[in-house]
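Rotation project, supervised by the postdoc (A.L.). Task for the rotation student: set up a whole-complex structure prediction and record inputs and outputs verbatim in this book. Inputs entered:
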Amino acid sequence: EVQLVESGGGLVQPGGSLRLSCAVSGFTFSSYWMTWVRQAPGKGLEWVANISPDGSAKQYGDSAKGRFTISRDNAENSLYLQMNTLRGEDTAVYYCARSTDWGFDYWGQGTLVTVSS
Amino acid sequence: QSGLTQPPSASGSPGQSVTISCTGTSSDVGGYNHVSWYQQYPGKAPKLLINEVSKRPSGVPDRFSGSKSGNTASLTVSGLQAEDEADYYCCSFAVTNNWLFGGGTKLTVL
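Outputs recorded:
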């Protein structure tokens, strides 16, 4: 059974940092692109970043460029999102998802990040 | 790059059909068959409904179908059931090597 479990969310002050993790099981993690998608409260989905199977290629959405870093550890079957210089508008549920050529076929349950003083 | 355009709401009675549109540009929806649709219930993670414009993953009822014409993709839900009441999102790959989502459509079963 494919499972993706996010962790690391919480309350952080504006300007602060947070590192999200996504533990994966049930498929060969090292063979897939992986993605982070976020959803602000009451809003729609927004693609944040993705990473190639070997970690050599990374792509970021406009809101993440320069502040967020996606990474992975294939030995640990884990995906990460390092978020720096956080702003109020980064408040959202962050989902990790398995990527395919045409979209995202498996999603985690999400972890809530709240940026507030 | 802006997101894809969806109507904020749609509705239909049980047994009817409803179609939700998703409009982009030639740089995303119109340029690729990498269009997918997701269903999301309140407080839950999105679930893949349709991939590659019109393909249903295993386990998705055949009441859900997808299509595309030009820069607009569509999701049709036939034989509406109460359990179909949810938010629906389209998504497309874009020429800038990123992924775009629609703003979402809240489907109400009357």
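Student's summary: Chain B touches chain A at residues 1, 3, 33-36, 38, 44-48, 51-52, 57, 89, 91, 93, 97-104 (CB under 8 Å).
Supervisor addendum: Chain B has no helices and nine strands.
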